[in-house]
Amino acid sequence: MKKLVADDVQALHYLVTHAVLDLVGAVVTPLATLIYLFAVQWRLGLVLLLPIIAIFLLVTMNSKKVVGEHANGVWANIFGGAVTLIVIGIGSYQLADLLGLLPG
């Protein structure tokens, strides 16, 4: 019984002290990066924001809780995944071009 109480206290300690900071770091870092990119070079910020939007839409359209019976089927998921990969490729290409990693 004593061990169960100690384990619960440790789990609660992690939740109160560390989980909030981890969540804030996971949200603030990408958000600050996007804001900086929009301030420095808005086209690159927009290109790097597109995969986030595509993934969000893909996840949302697969949620039966959100869209009910209108959730994506297999083919819609295949095409949505392809669009997401293409957008990530375009963002990677733009980033490589900006950093001067592409020849020419």
Evaluate the radius of gyration.
Answer: 20 Å
Helix content: over 70%
**How many individual helices?**
4
Major sheet description: none
Can you give the mean pLDDT? 83
> Which series of helices and strands comes N to C?
HHHH
Query: Which shape, going by the Cα principal axes?
Result: flat
End-to-end distance: 69 Å
- SSE class: mainly alpha
Low-confidence stretches: none
Number of strands: 0
% residues in beta strands: under 5%
What's this model, at a glance?
The protein has 104 residues and is an all-alpha fold.
Detailed description of the structure:
This protein has 104 residues and is an all-alpha fold. It contains 4 helices and no strands. The protein has helices at 2-40, 42-61, 64-67, 74-98. The N and C termini lie far apart (69 Å). The model has no long low-confidence stretch (mean pLDDT 83).
Key descriptive features of the protein:
4 helices, mainly alpha, 104 residues
Layout of SSEs?
Elements: H1 2-40, H2 42-61, H3 64-67, H4 74-98
